[in-house]
Specification:
7 helices; 249 residues; alpha/beta
Length: 249
């Protein structure tokens, strides 16, 4: 039985991905900052561990407790929507600490065991903002674009040791609470001067045409984990797939 460790499983894509793999007979290590067993059915194949990807000590403890890991899914993230000029630099650093440096730190912690075994998969979950520039998401886009480049380079390094690195790029879905884990409110990041510009954008965000579902992303993670080719990118959700195809036509 293979073991998968997924970060950020308290909600959204991470939670659904954990359920997806658990239902298919995998040993799942679901991690979150504040463990909550009520999110999952009782199963001998499930372990829930505390993990804060911004803490070196927390990462070390979780990886040690997890034991051998066949697949790492870096899903934990923070969203931020708003005008760049109104976004506090302290919050931007927090976004990068989780979305960018947290991913890198988790990779560093797990790669040695995969390299030694000459097997393993790392899946880094980014966003469709990495496929096309979107307004009011400059800081968030930067944090995710960094991981796109990072993963592409990492894939070359790890291929030498028969370890694979992949990207999953979810589309936007209002139900995923884009700014989950954020300690700033969207309305505070839209100065009056931007109100007219922002209004139609938020109307678009609320459109039912944005149909990415948690299950779409879980399926993309599943596909990425099982892909043995040199394919790097796996968009998740109808809007992400459309963007991906438009960028690769």
């Amino acid at each position: 039985m293979q073991t998968i460790l997924i970060t950020g499983t308290s909600s959204g894509y991470g939670l659904e991905s954990a359920h997806h793999f658990l239902a298919r007979g995998w040993h799942v290590i679901a991690t979150m900052r504040r463990p909550d067993a009520t999110l999952f059915p009782a199963s001998p194949n499930l372990r829930i561990l505390p993990l804060d990807v911004t803490s070196e000590g927390s990462i070390a403890a979780a990886v040690t407790a997890a034991g051998p890991i066949d697949v790492l899914v870096n899903n934990a993230g923070i969203g931020v929507v708003g005008a760049l000029e109104a976004t506090p630099m302290a919050h931007i650093r927090k976004v990068f600490d989780t979305n960018t440096f947290g991913v890198m730190a988790m990779c560093q912690a797990v790669i040695p065991q995969m390299r030694e075994r000459r097997s393993g998969v790392i899946v880094n979950v980014t966003s469709s903002v990495a496929l096309a520039a979107m307004p009011l998401a400059a800081a968030y886009t930067a944090s995710k674009q960094a991981i796109e480049g990072f993963t592409g380079s990492l894939a070359h390094e790890l291929a030498h040791f028969d370890v694979r690195a992949k990207l999953v790029e979810p589309g936007y879905a209002p139900t995923t609470r884009f700014a989950h884990n954020s300690d700033v409110r969207v309305e505070d990041l839209i100065p009056p001067a931007y109100a007219g510009f922002a209004a139609p954008i938020f109307e678009t965000f609320a459109s039912p045409a944005l149909t990415t579902k948690e299950t779409d992303v879980a399926k993309a993670v599943w596909a990425a984990v099982h892909d043995t080719s040199d394919r790097l990118q796996f968009p998740g959700g109808a809007d992400a797939i459309a963007l991906f195809e438009a960028c690769h036509c």
